[in-house]
């Protein structure tokens, strides 16, 4: 399905969008990526239709989606970043996350935020485009990245993509980490059996997030083919509903 035809979305002729004062960064592999079927079929209402993106890119919405756990999860991601480091985030995130991560990285670092959609990159630019550390570009997470990074931060992307994408994205991101650097996933996880939200989340996944429940069965590190090149740690939040998984690449 071609989203740019069906939904009038300006993707086909979009120029690669870049922000920041330093040299322009573009994804070398795909200047204007096509929208994948899953994004159009399942997530148009949430991430593709420009009016909905305007409506939903708000902290209040993020707080509702994440059951008020957004600050705890954001702090968990932020804690893995070092000032002055080079960081890749392969998909846009609604709300204030990008601003907070950009602040931690600081003006001497580089914060590459990429997304497969122009409408999302435009929103990221609105939030952090004036910061010297920010580079925002259109790019598929399966191929994104420019050289090696101290930290790759994959924030709530994996649950939204089909299994073949999960493998391709995880492997690309793993290949982008410097020796000694970190590959971080923050995403859903299987909640405790008696977690009061478990039935609600189960229904949300069934109706709205068809690729998410697999994260209840599989560890995120399993999607990295050569997982042994990393030393893994995992932390769960809110009764197990969310997780942060960090792989440190062996030097
Ligand atoms: C990170 S996820 C969801 C994050 C979280 N639920 C939130 O509140 O924003 C949403 C983003 O992933 C992007 N996305 C989906 N598939 C992608 C892919 N293959 N490559 C890059 N970005 C992708 C979508 O365009 C969307 O902007």
Bound molecules: S-adenosylmethionine
Which CATH class applies here? Alpha Beta
Mean pLDDT: 90
Q: Remind me, CATH topology?
A: Rossmann fold
CATH architecture descriptor name:
3-Layer(aba) Sandwich
Give me the count of strands. 7
Q: Return the structural class.
A: alpha/beta
Task: List SSEs in N-to-C order.
Answer: HHHHHEHEHEEHEHHEE
| Structural Rg | 17 Å
Beta content: 15-25%
Name the shape in a single word.
globular
Number of domains: 1
Unreliable stretches covering 5 or more consecutive residues? 1-9, 13-30
Helix content: 25-40%
Largest pleated sheet: 7 strands, mixed
Number of helical stretches of at least 4 residues: 10
Distance between the termini: 43 Å
Question: Could you state the CATH homologous superfamily?
Answer: Vaccinia Virus protein VP39
Biggest sheet strand order reads 3-2-1-4-5-7-6
